[in-house]
Design a protein that fits this description.
Distance between the termini: 37 Å
Strand order of the largest sheet: 1-2
Order of helices and strands: EEEEHHH
Number of strands: 4
Strand content: 5-15%
Membrane topology: Multi-pass membrane protein
Radius of gyration: 24 Å
Pfam families: Ctr
GO molecular function: copper ion transmembrane transporter activity
Shape: elongated
Keywords: Copper, Copper transport, Ion transport, Membrane, Transmembrane, Transmembrane helix, Transport
Subcellular location: Membrane
Length: about 180
């Protein structure tokens, strides 16, 4: 299926768009007719941009997790200090993010979700090169932004405490 731009209909401004697997480079269009690939350099820049966009998504996904962990550590320190000073031994305290903290969490999530949605729309063009770039970006993003680090409390080992904790998130999907 060809889509023609609004510049006279002479075919010079036509975009190659397919809902079937394709390897289009020159004259491919993505998301809008103004994203019309007219040269190999433009296509290379598109591929690099797609890789970079997916790496950014992984960065914001990690940023969201790190911000949540930061808030929990901050709450834990404050709660420990406050309730230790009062001499209280057994208390249940609940953390609820402040309005500003929740706004920051929501903004990070919106950027991550929006970027992922754009990547999904790009993938729907079924362009093999773009899809490969999405996979490369996902791999690079994971490698750069989500280096595995697990803290294991060895304080209880050997004293009959079997509660050594590793990764507590069983599924990394959509998280």
């Amino acid at each position: 299926m060809d889509m023609h731009g609004g510049h006279g209909g002479d075919g010079a401004d036509s975009c190659k768009i397919s809902m079937l697997w394709n390897w289009y480079t020159i004259d491919a269009c993505f998301l809008t007719s103004s994203w019309h690939i007219r040269s190999g350099g433009m296509f290379a820049a598109t591929c690099i941009g797609v890789v970079f966009l997916v790496v950014l998504i992984e960065f914001f996904r990690r940023l969201g997790k790190e911000y949540d962990a930061f808030l929990l550590r901050q709450f834990h320190r404050e709660s420990t200090r406050r309730y230790t000073e009062e001499g209280s031994v057994s208390q249940v305290v609940t953390f609820r993010a402040s309005l500003v903290q929740q706004l920051i969490r929501s903004a990070i999530h919106a950027v991550t979700f929006g970027g992922a949605y754009i990547v999904m729309l790009l993938a729907m063009y079924f362009n093999g090169y773009v899809i490969i770039c999405i996979f490369i970006g996902a791999g690079l993003g994971k490698f750069i932004c989500d280096w595995l680090e697990v803290k294991i409390d060895l304080g209880g080992i050997g004293r009959g405490t079997p509660d050594v904790k590793g990764i507590e998130e069983p599924s990394v999907c959509c998280g």
